[in-house]
Design a protein that fits this description.
A: mainly alpha; about 75% helix; B: mainly alpha; about 70% helix; about 0% strand
Chain lengths: ~230, ~250
């Protein structure tokens, strides 16, 4: 490190390890608190996104005139950088978790609408026709026929939305509610303290992987008929 | 905070953007925009130089599919902010160099994935026919496979470029420069006018990048011409691509 310079600054002389178990144990309560915020924001964003996305997808399926604008709008939202999104929301909701949540819901909504719609469109028309012929009403048709068939696409959407949201929460540091992202910028601002930065970064990745594994498990248990197929 | 504050912030933003001095002064919008484009351009160029040959090689030979898809999936779980920060605390130090390296790394997976899938998906009959016509290995890649894979290749570069332009905004959080500085500065000064002005500029730049590159790809791609947002059958939505998808700068 800075081998060419003869005089060594105090900052360089101080140990700055990439990982420190004493940092983790000393700041355990902070880390747990921030992880809690991270998980809370992610779960809320994906659940709210799904609740809004499902009726939108059902509506968009009814006509191609609705599907077009949904695609266009979702592409537009998808293109807007997250920092700009939070900046647009902040004047209305201030430096609060609400600002972060609104932005996160918008992104998860966009991913979910597309995958929900693709899932619904993948249900063969013959199958729907047969179910109607058997006397299935619209609600029963959805719950017992369409939902199981569209489930792989739905779950794929939920997994992508969740993993993306876990990563996106970190940008919430701009309003002071970035979950584990607080550690990343916190360490950067605390004289580039690496142990804090790495703890935050590794925490985010672990959280995303765990969430993905959990959802994969849920998908597996919900779709027993796909098992055994290579 | 209420709706009134939001509307007045929008008004302040318009006033801010209309002042020529805010554009031309040193460290103003023009300077930040130039910096933003320079960082983004360098990062995308570096990613293309590394990922395209690798993608062509893997796709042409049909090897390493698991590696490519694994890389794309894992990269989605790594927050951009984390990588931007990690490079800033290495001996590289914070600033434009660290930002460019981090952004180039994030541009790799979409370019690599799309190049790989593009070359992997070339009709085997087409390759056989080219060989039968006496083309050597290099000619098969350049004259037969490249034109067939070009649409996906361009999609990869476009995805990467939009992602990089969007992510370059986050560099401001770790003193890496670019238009995000405006948003960061606005939050620091509790001046929502500047915040929204920055947001408008950043969002416009991202959307513009998407449009310009889509038109460019449309003009450069041989064969059937259609813009990506004009689907032949608009009734059918594509699901978000399992492999290539990530929120622009997650």
């Amino acid at each position: 490190m800075l081998g060419a310079t003869s005089s060594v600054l105090a900052v360089d002389a101080a140990p700055n390890p990439w990982f420190s178990s004493s940092y983790v144990s000393d700041n355990w309560s902070t880390i747990v608190h921030l992880t809690g915020e991270h998980v809370r924001l992610t779960v809320l964003a994906v659940v709210l996104g799904a609740v809004i996305a499902l009726p939108l997808a059902l509506l968009a399926r009814r006509s191609r005139y609705l599907a077009g604008p949904v695609l266009a709008l979702s592409t537009l939202v998808y293109t807007i950088p997250s920092l700009a999104m939070f900046a647009f929301v902040a004047p209305f909701t201030g430096l609060s978790t609400t600002t972060v949540l609104v932005g996160l819901v918008l992104y998860s909504l966009v991913i979910l609408v597309r995958n929900f719609l693709a899932g619904l469109q993948s249900v063969p028309e013959d199958v729907r026709e047969a179910a109607r012929g058997l006397g299935y009403g619209p609600a029963r048709l959805f719950w017992q026929v369409e939902l199981p068939l569209a489930l792989p696409s739905f779950m794929a959407g939920l997994r992508i939305a969740t993993v993306s949201t876990v990563a996106l929460v970190t940008v919430g540091v701009i309003v002071g509610h970035g979950g584990l992202g607080q550690l990343i910028t916190g360490g950067f601002n605390a004289n580039f303290y690496r142990a804090e930065i790495v703890t935050g970064a590794v925490g985010c990745v672990l959280l995303a992987l765990v969430a993905d594994l959990v959802l994969a498990g849920v998908e597996r248990s919900l779709t027993p008929w796909t098992r055994g197929r290579a | 905070m209420d709706a009134g504050a939001g509307v007045s912030a929008l008004g302040d933003a318009v006033v801010y953007l209309n002042d020529p001095f805010n554009w031309s002064r040193p460290g103003g919008i023009a300077d930040l925009l130039g910096q933003h484009l320079e960082i983004s351009g360098l990062a995308v160029a570096a990613a293309v130089v590394v990922a395209v040959p690798l993608g062509v090689l893997l796709g042409h030979t049909g090897r390493g599919g698991g590696f490519v898809i694994g890389l794309a999936n894992v990269s989605r779980a790594v927050p951009t902010l984390a990588l931007l920060t990690v490079f800033a605390v290495t001996p590289i130090g914070f600033g434009q160099t660290a930002t460019t390296i981090a952004l180039a790394l994030f541009a790799l997976p979409p370019v690599l994935t799309n190049t790989y899938v593009g070359f992997r998906g070339v009709d085997r009959d087409l390759v056989e026919a080219s060989r039968a016509m006496g083309m050597n290995a290099r000619q098969v890649v350049v004259k037969a496979e490249l034109p067939a894979a070009a649409p996906l290749l361009m999609t990869g570069i476009r995805t990467a470029a939009v992602q990089v332009v969007a992510t370059a905004t986050l560099a401001a959080l770790v003193a890496g420069g670019g238009l995000g500085e405006l948003i960061n500065l606005g939050f620091g000064q509790q001046d929502y006018g500047v915040v929204v002005a920055g947001a408008i500029l950043v969002a416009a730049l991202a959307v513009l990048t998407e449009l310009v590159l889509a038109v460019l790809a449309w003009a450069l791609t041989p064969g059937e011409k259609r813009l990506p947002w004009r689907r032949v059958r608009p009734a059918r939505l594509e699901p978000v691509d399992l492999v290539a998808a990530r929120v622009t700068d997650a």
